[in-house]
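As promised in the previous annual report, we have extended the structural survey to additional targets. Below is the entry for Cation/H(+) antiporter 15.
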Amino acid sequence: MAYQSMPTDIGKLNRTILCYAESIYRFNGLWEGPDPLTPLISLFLIQLTVSMTVVQLLVYALQFVNQPPFVAELLGGILLGPSALGRIRAYRRMMFPNYSFKVLEPMAHLSIVYYAFLVGLKMDVRAAMRTGQKAIKVAIAGTVIPFFFGSGVYFIFVNDKSEMFGFIFWGAALSVTGFSVLMKILDRQQILHTEIGKTAVASALVNDLCSWGFLVLGFAVTSSPANSPWSLISTIAFVLFCVYHVSPALNWIIQKTPEGQGYSEFYICSILTGMALSGVITDVCGTHPMIGAFIFGLVIPNEVLEAMITDKLEDFVMGILMPVYFVVCGVRTNIDAISYNTSWWLAAVVIVLACSVKVFSTLIVAPFAQLPISDAFAVGLLSNAKSIMVLIILEAGQIQGVLSTQTYSLMVVAVLVMTMVVTPAAIWFRPVHNTEPYKRRSVQKAKSDEEFRVLACIYHTRNVPTIINLLRTSNASPKSPINVFALQLVELMGRATTMMVVHNARVAGPRNPSHIEAQADQIVAAFDNYELRSEGVQTQAVTARCTYTAMANEICIFAKEKRSAFIIIPFHKLRTLDGEMIDINPSLQSVNECVLEDAPCSVAYWLTEALPSHMIMHQTLLSCTLEARTTARHWLMHGGWLKIQMSD
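The corresponding structure token record, generated without further manual editing, is:
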């Protein structure tokens, strides 16, 4: 039989074919070949181990100088890249050969999809909508001015027309403020609840939301400039669909779940499947899968479900997957390329200006926001804190081909310097606490003709009527006024950062409030009504979200800031029908005991029901009539006992 050759497809001869490595993993161990790092899986596991180890070592080392983990993570990526260890040829060929990026890059982008989903879960859009006018003005100035500044400076380093749209990513990188990083820094330095801290955090929250808009715009414009309007329109349509259809559907499904049953693995897997599908949809729209994951996490309506998903995913994503992303960002960074066709002096000037533009923008808006110059300078300097979001924006610009290695590396170094400056600035602006005790910050030293400040802690709405009845017996008058701070204490679900929200009694709450917001509205309405029906009474309602371990500290700090002379805490036990006392929540007992130990003023337990006569508490039980108010303010309520501990 004569040999017959197969027909040749001429059209395929000039095509470029990408050949993948056949050795995904090793079958015969060391006996197959001399290099154990040739298989992709083995090499990726080594890269993963090295990146995790380096990042965790740097996090541990830099915590002694109070630097946030983000600085250590970014430094770890740079050290493993061509700027440091990558200079060693043998290391580069062994640890990061070119073919290894076929696995490394997809894993890095998978990590930021999960990271975006977690950010959406923990972000409180309602809090951003309730931001005050001062913070809104600071946020707008801190977004617009740095964006235009970064866009203008970008063209100093760019001559290629193909990189023209890189200004979007440079400007966005300077505009972004890392909300989570800033919160952790301010919380550690104990300036989170100062006026400077509140303004900086509130503006950072608004600014963080704007950064996602910049990212969508950058992807839409650089992917296909001709079709960018359709990319934006389709992405916005998907966002509206999630808000008005997906979120109510999820809420309906959650409400059908029996109370106390919890959420099974099926719920969690279904949510993650929805996240993946949302990522695919936004990728089809022309942006990026992480945009869809972020939106889907943002519209999940149930806090308990959010906390459960966060607890299951956060350690895996942040501890294992994200170090891979930092390595990829570090490998893309080459510090030597910064001085290409320019001088180091010019690069240094740009970095200094990048660190100053936030301060400049805050100083410009200060007169319009009624912000003192010193506070404006502090807020601007603290707003330099960056987070992973800025790396996502810069890396997206390089992937889209509009940021060169030079412009990318220069901005990464600027981001690192800007974030490292924030901690020393926070230490510098930390208020000096007065070591001398406030002489009249106690019940027994209060004068009847001076304002008496009371901090009323509320664990549940059932505490409100009895506390208000107690306050009414204080016999307040214009000559002997009282100022009541109603502090609603809410257990922080998940691993979000502590947040305190001050409520305006005259402003209506959200149209579709969550369970916590509905309780807050009831508390605000009750104390507002108490103020309107009383003379010499001022009230203010505040909601504090924190863990039980931090709750006592939040109460004491708030009492110091408001110069309260008296703290009222609901008792942590209830009496059953047979007269026995049962714990409401064991964690509340620990909170109450810590407040009694650390409070800067007088503290009282308030019981909604009378205790049996044979039960005596370890503190003194005071029962004084209202006539004793000339020397001290004590109350006795019918149907309840008041236990007071006097401050020293």
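The two ends are 111 Å apart (CA to CA). The first helix runs from residue 40 to 62. These points will be discussed at the next consortium meeting with the crystallography subgroup.
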